[in-house]
């Protein structure tokens, strides 16, 4: 991806858009590239991607799709909603139309409870269920040596159609077909899906957990992205920005975007102007990401987080438990819940830290946080 106009803002703090420079995912992308180029089946072809809001799950799916298509695969992108099975058929037929013979209209007509009880109607061929129709499409693709990649974003674990898609995919893998399935969701959603006994084989799929990106990679991505534009920032501001970003891809795009927008004209953005951009990005992070994450938490989840705010950097569970007025084992349950949701992370010796940038500041500004600090 290259920007034709250096006067365009090169940062992209929007949902699912692939950034100009994707920080910290080089090794992962190389694994996917090898999987889509290999004649033998590789583990990456069945992957479950999880991460908190802002870790770049959708952007990663989009980029992997693009790279799979560059290697000759047909890619269809689904959202975990009713109708996704019909959408999978229609997208496959549309995107592979140049390879298919008699690509007729196919329509989902019924959805049952069993793993394969999905009915479709079609205009010129005999009747068949969803698996039969997709099998026919895969047969046609196989004649050309072409594989089918299915991606599913924002998974809904309890959706019957998702379970049926995954169950049928397992059969395609057993049949030796050239198929791949990449799914992404919030950590608690992926955990729920993995606990579903009807798709237990997913526990053997590749689990990709998107977390913090190292500071040096964030700094390099910021520097490289600015290099594609007509503006730049000082080394001091670059260091301050990295400190605020705390390894979150969305925050990197947001901080870069706001600093660039605040600067007028080309050349070096003065430090005060850049700092105003950082301030605006922090406020936007609170309203666009942290508020939604906070609202998903239970009262006791929040109490655990407030207890962590008394430490300057990281916290021990015994200290948090004491501040909560609870036992270590009780506090550990909530530590595990928050780890699963991607709100906190481990940092060695059993200690935990906030995983999302500006979370400590956000908590201090809530009514509960102000009450906690006064108690």
UniProtKB/TrEMBL annotation:
Keyword terms: ATP-binding, Nucleotide-binding
SUPFAM superfamilies on file: P-loop containing nucleoside triphosphate hydrolases
GO molecular function ontology, one term from the record: ATP binding
Entry keyword Nucleotide-binding: yes
Name by which UniProt lists this protein: ATP-binding protein
